[in-house]
Amino acid sequence: MHYDVIVIGAGLAGLTAACQLIDAKKKVLLVDQEPANSIGGQAFWSFGGLFLVDSPEQRRLGIKDNKELAWQDWRGSAGFDRLEDEDHWAYEWAKAYIDFAAGEKYNWLKSQGINFFPVVGWAERGGSLAGGHGNSVPRFHIVWGTGPALVEPFANKVLNASEKGDITYLPRHQVTELITEDGTITGIRGNVLENSIIRRGEESSRVVVDSFEYLADAVVVASGGIGANIELVKKNWPSRLGTPPNSMVAGVPAYVDGKMLEITERAGGRIVNRDRMWHYTEGLKNWEPIWNNHGIRILPGPSSMWFDALGNRFTAPNFPGFDTLSTLEAIQKTGYDYSWFILTEKIIEKEFALSGSEQNLDLTKKSIKDVLKRVLPGPPKAIQDFKDHGEDFVIADSLKDLVEGMNKLVGSDLLDFLHIKEQILARDREIENPFTKDAQITALHGARNYIGDKLIRAAKPHKILDPSAGPLIAVRLNILTRKTLGGLQTNLNGQVLNEEGNPIPGLFAAGEVSGFGGGGVHGYRSLEGTFLGGCLFTGLQVGKYLAVAHKYSSMT
Q1: FAD-dependent oxidoreductase 2 FAD-binding domain location, by residue (predicted)?
Q2: Does residue 275 register a pLDDT over 90?
């Protein structure tokens, strides 16, 4: 059984590469350890946010964006500081990705039948200087239909080609070894796993029923990162972010275990930037979990007050939605692995959204009628369900009762009612005027200058202790694992490099396993919407290269 190309992983990166190879009429084998109903991997569960530059949606909203501004934001966020070595190819991939996001990406996606929600989101706002971290303008384009709609055209193409015999797709095939011959990767070996009838996202059986071996001219590793492997996350945890959290919730299913990284490293592939990772600070414990330790992220608007576990308000740039890793560092340096939002009913009904396709069924099911309900009084149904059933919410009519409930939730008396009251009163005094020295309130006024935020993401400024805005709400925020920012170092063709910086013949990588390109295209920080886009871009680049190459093993 000899193929032109074997692709390991049926997530978005692997599917994108496979689709290019199908068009080129290559003989392709696609293997994945999960059942067929998990095709699309993590992308299926995503909110479907994509980073685009100077899109028609931006222009219609009066957003002035261009490639130079996007590149300024990317460099300021990435903070590349290993350019002579680990960041060399990451930097080249970053430049190429900005060209893609400002160029062919939009029309290419439209050609796949992918459309966008008309309001562009403003993620990772930064909160520093112009040349620092963050998006200077809104760039977060939500796919109409969220993650499932993004996956659909690529998955359908692969499944249809499989039915016609134009590609071989083998679920429940777990790769355990890359076959090497004279320094060239020539195929894969592994285990055939028993059939596992589960819901998408649930942990599948690892019972082995057979083994396999397949040969190919090229092997593409597109297996994802380490987000569900909590022990590996802790092992790679950078000291700059404090000590690893004792407790984290998992933002990805159990199959995101990082095993192919280790297998590829054993075959000679070089892993770089292991200490770079992306975890969210606004995680909720899912009251209706699909996978073990299932966490859901709040995508917050700019108004909630953010306190550490001791009741001290965070300072700039550690405001909701501004600088994820700066806030993560600040939380971890408190010695506790959780923090708090304090807000009002008026804030939650307009500013809270939840990550994940299953938490946004109005968008996922493309129901205009249900989307329009978001402007009605009260929080969206998914938020209300968490308020009613989630263990991280405390609701009270008075601040004293709220603080007592917060202490009861964590089983301690860390929070002092008077200390928190003083900080909230100080903030509320500043809300009286359109001008203020409170940086978060200034940012809130700035957000409402953008029509998209004013309509659906930023509540009208009001006092937290205004009884008419109540009841008061406190939300315990957990650290939520998500993305691996480092990975296999690759050149711009997606060829995996060895420790000497030379391409390993026959070996390629795409998606998160390659740090979304080059072993760390994001550097230290993401601008959001770039994870799904990174899967698409790396898969596209590798697929295009292999589609026209004739003898992959000899190419350097």
Answers
A1: 4-532
A2: yes
Q: Could you tell me the two tokens for 5?
A: 């190309």
Q: What is the pLDDT of residues 217-269, one digit of tens each?
A: 999 999 999 999 999 999 999 999 999 999 999 999 999 999 999 999 999 99
Dihedral of CA atoms 143, 144, 148, 149 in degrees, nearest 10, equals -90
> Residue 373: which pLDDT band, with cuts at 50, 70 and 90?
confident
Amino acid at 4: D
DSSP string, 295-326: EEEEE--S-SEEEETTSPBP-TT-STTT-HHH
Provide the terminal-to-terminal Cα distance of the chain, rounded to the nearest Å.
25
- pLDDT at position 128, please? 85
Which of left, alpha, beta for 71 (phi over 0: left; psi -120 to 50: alpha)? Answer: alpha
| Whether 304 contacts 314, CB under 8 Å | no
Q: List all residues 6 or more positions away from 59 whose beta carbon is below 8 Å from its beta carbon.
A: none
Reduce the secondary structure of 105-150 to three states and give it as a string. Answer: HHHHHHHCCCCECCCCECCCCCCCCCCCCCCCCCCEEEECCHHHHH
The sign of the dihedral angle between the CA atoms of 216, 217, 222, 226 is positive
Tell which residue, 226, 225, 216, has the closest CA to residue 178.
216
Task: Tell me the longest C-alpha to C-alpha distance in the chain.
Answer: 74
Q: Strand, helix or coil at 549?
A: coil
Nearest by Cα to 431 from 377, 383, 469? 469
Measured distance CA(270)–CA(88) in Å, rounded: 13
Backbone φ, ψ for residue 6 (5° rounding): -110, 130
Q: Report CA 27 to chain centroid distance, whole Å.
A: 32
- Cα-flanking dihedrals φ and ψ of residue 217, to 5°? -75, -25
Q: Does residue 547 contact residue 26 with C-beta atoms inside 8 Å?
A: yes
pTM of this structure = 0.96
